[in-house]
Design brief:
One of its GO terms (molecular function) is tRNA-2-methylthio-N(6)-dimethylallyladenosine(37) synthase activity. This is TRAM domain-containing protein. This protein is α/β, with parallel strands linked by helices. The protein folds into 3 domains: about 5-125, Methylthiotransferase, N-terminal domain (Rossmann fold, 3-Layer(aba) Sandwich), CATH 3.40.50.12160; about 130-370, pyruvate-formate lyase- activating enzyme; about 375-430, Nucleic acid-binding proteins (OB fold (Dihydrolipoamide Acetyltransferase, E2P)), CATH 2.40.50. It has helices at about 15-30, 55-65, 80-95, 110-115, 160-165, 175-185, 210-220, 240-245, 265-270, 275-290, 305-320, 345-370; strands at about 5-10, 35, 45-50, 75-80, 100, 120-125, 145, 150, 170, 190-195, 225-230, 255, 295-300, 325-330, 375-385, 390-395, 400-405, 415-420, 425-430. It has a 6-stranded parallel beta sheet, sandwiched between helices. The longest helix is centred in the last third of the chain and has 24 residues, at about 345-370. The chain is globular, with a radius of gyration of 22 Å.
Length: about 425
């Protein structure tokens, strides 16, 4: 590699949409002459693409930016949700930052870098163009993120996303089809459709939610697997589930955040459904997709939550029997309606409830995973495991993570694996036949 080539390090925090955007950033910078660098201390350009959904994400970024000794003369750019929300504040707090950009103007980053002349640049304007239309440098050659809509109109009281991602905007089905066709031509085997609320896709351009129409269209494509995330319970319909059940390439995995089990707390959150309605949705999923895995997000310690409210959360977990849950303690976000509520739940109570919730869900996850023991599952092989280079990792159609001994040459291919052992967070198998 020539010493004259510019090196870029990209660090990503947060959700799948951020990973999607970070791949576009890497693709853009590659197009103007940068090569990827895994060691931030050797990079000529360090890009941090941030998250601000929870305080922990803020602190992780602040800690890394403060502690890393960057290469002398290097450029530091910060983008994403935290930059969109607190761009000017970041420049004042960290004098080392050269460029601040937002969530919807990624394509301007090379221009901002070229415009630097000793003064920092902060620009977080919203552009109409979807980030998906930009070049990408994908982490996995056989998998791709495809954004179908962006933004959110739900305005849950605790959530900063509508502020930093804007209102819901959908891409035309034809535009998404074109991207999928190109990915198939590039030998991509699996796509994950992304949106802050994919179920409401199309309501802004087709006058009604049209996600089932999009899924049915993609069901006729030559792509092997289609996943999607994230779904809002209020917009999950029979039509969507029926479409999944009728198309062979649709993955039987539904991520359906419920956040809290108490109707009183759900009203304060502005979630637009109740406990009974959520459990009915779970039954509906099981009816259409008996073998589907269901995962969720659960929040503990929302302001005013008491023990009875928390027991309602545990009751949903016990009844729904999720395959996996992403659990977290409520984090106050300035600028959200919930920030004005008195956070009257003691931290000790939050932590104790959190531990009980995790313990219950881990127990259920293990029981659900044990149901797979003895089965032969088709995996799309993703990578060599970090702990044992003789082991590979792959995902089932239902998004179960499976580790097995195999040849690295199978990465990006489908293999059949017999499940031999279950753990709470993954399965262990061996090549079958």
């Amino acid at each position: 590699m020539s010493e004259m080539m510019k090196r870029v390090y990209v660090e990503t925090y947060g959700c799948q949409m951020n990973k999607h955007d970070a791949e576009r950033i890497a693709g853009l910078l590659q197009a103007v002459g940068y090569v990827a660098e895994l060691d931030v201390t050797k990079a000529d350009l360090a890009v941090y693409y941030t998250c601000c959904v929870r305080k922990s994400a803020d602190e992780r970024f602040y800690g890394q930016l403060s502690s890393v000794k960057h290469k002398e003369g290097s450029i530091i750019a910060v983008g994403g949700c935290l930059a969109q929300d607190k761009g000017e504040e970041l420049l004042k707090r960290f004098k080392k930052i050269d460029v601040v950009f937002g969530t919807q103007n990624l394509k301007e980053l090379p221009t901002f870098i070229n415009q630097l002349n000793g003064q920092s640049i902060s620009d977080t304007q919203y552009l109409k163009e979807f980030n998906s239309n930009l070049p990408a440098l994908r982490e996995l050659k056989h998998k791709a993120w495809v954004a179908v809509n962006r933004g959110c109109d739900n305005h849950c009281s605790y959530c900063i996303v509508p502020t930093v991602r804007g209102p819901e905007v959908s891409r035309a089905i034809e535009d998404i089809e074109t991207e999928i066709d190109q990915l198939v031509a590039d030998n991509v085997k699996e796509v994950t459709l992304l949106g802050q609320n994919v179920n409401s896709y199309g309501k802004d351009i087709y006058s009604r939610p049209s996600f089932s129409k999009l899924l049915d269209t993609l069901g006729k494509k030559d792509i092997n697997r289609v996943r999607f995330t994230t779904s809002h319970p209020k917009d999950l319909s029979d039509e969507i589930l029926e479409t999944i059940s009728e198309n062979e390439n649709m993955c039987e995995h539904i991520h359906l955040p419920f956040q809290a089990g108490s109707d009183r707390v759900l009203r304060k959150m502005g979630r637009q459904y109740n406990k009974e309605g959520y459990l009915e949705l779970v039954k509906m999923i099981r009816n259409y997709l008996p073998d589907a895995s269901i995962t969720t997000d659960i929040m503990v310690g929302f302001p005013t939550e008491d023990e009875k409210d928390f027991e309602d959360t545990l009751d949903i977990v016990e009844n729904a029997r999720f395959d996996k849950a992403f659990t977290f303690i409520y984090s106050k976000r300035d600028g959200t309606p919930a920030a004005s509520l008195e956070d009257n739940v003691a931290y000790e109570d939050k932590l104790e409830r959190f531990k009980r919730l995790v313990s219950l869900q881990d127990e259920i996850s293990l029981e659900k995973n044990k149901e797979n023991v003895g089965r032969v599952e088709e995996l799309l092989v993703d990578s060599i495991t970090k702990k044992d280079r003789a082991m590979l990792s792959g995902r089932t159609k239902t998004n179960k993570l499976v580790h097995f001994k195999g040849e690295a040459s199978t990465i990006g291919s489908f293999v059949n694996v017999k499940i031999k052992e279950a753990k709470p967070f993954f399965l262990i198998g061996e090549i079958s036949g």
